[in-house]
Amino acid sequence: MKIIISGTVDLDPAQMDAAMAAAKPLIVGALTQEGILDYDWCPDPLTPGRIRVFERWATTEALENHFKNHWYSDMRETLGQFGIRGAEVLKYQIDLAEPVYDETGTARADFFTAKAD
User: Fold this and answer.
1) What's the pTM?
2) Which end of the chain is more exposed for a tag (fewer CB within 10 A), N or C?
3) Res 93: pLDDT
4) What is the pLDDT of residue 117?
5) 8-state DSSP, 32
6) In angstroms, rounded to a whole number, what is the distance separating the alpha carbons of residues 49 and 66?
């Protein structure tokens, strides 16, 4: 089952550019791991000092391996050097994924391609 990790990490805004520069090689390294589908850490354009985290993993095992890998521990250590002020990062199990738009280009909130029981 796919896993999504999503959340925010708040840093000292004065250190944001330096933090992102230090994190970049760790992000690149994490993207080499087996089972990683997305690994995005981006500055929030509306909240100074906030990093938006979005990760997508193919399996729970891939995420578990990431947590044991140095890319993960190095990122925690690196970000800790830039004045972490708070974090809220959650993981989600994904049992179904579908397009947002149907064949007519209409955005749909329902899961329209899933077979009804």
Assistant:
1) 0.87
2) C
3) 96
4) 57
5) T
6) 25
d(CA 61, CA 66): 9
CA 9 to CA 18: how far, in whole Å? Answer: 15
Tokens representing residue 64 in the block: 């578990």
Rounded to whole angstroms, the Cα distance separating 36 from 38 reads 6
pLDDT higher than 70, residue 92: yes
**One-letter amino acid identity for 106?**
T
Domain residue spans of the chain: 2-94
pLDDT in tens, 4-13: 999 999 999 9
Q: Topology of 2-94 in CATH?
A: Alpha-Beta Plaits (3.30.70)
Give the number of other Cβ atoms within 10 Å of residue 49's Cβ. Answer: 21
**Amino acid occupying residue 49:** G
Structure tokens at 84: 């972490």
